[in-house]
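Re-run with default settings, no changes from the original entry. Doing this only to confirm the output is reproducible before filing.
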Amino acid sequence: MPNAFLSHFMERAQLSNAQLAQAVTAGARAAGHRDINPDESRVRRWRGGECPRQPVPQIIAQVLGARCSVLGARCSVPGARCSVPGWPCP
């Protein structure tokens, strides 16, 4: 089942699949996760309903929340402390 929630917040944050992939990679590296390096096709699969492993949902929530904040958009990402809603917490 497609992840409409992720697609919605990507639209609000004005991020393409490639841009989210790059931001997740940067966020993962900043957190010390050198092995997380999604690409555009991986983000497309997440939007299609694939569930990423932890800590990727947390990183996605942080990226989207920060991006919305920079744009001045009113979009807090629920569950940002844990994961993107629709994806289970560990």
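Helices lie at 4-12, 17-30, 40-47, 56-71. The radius of gyration is 12 Å.
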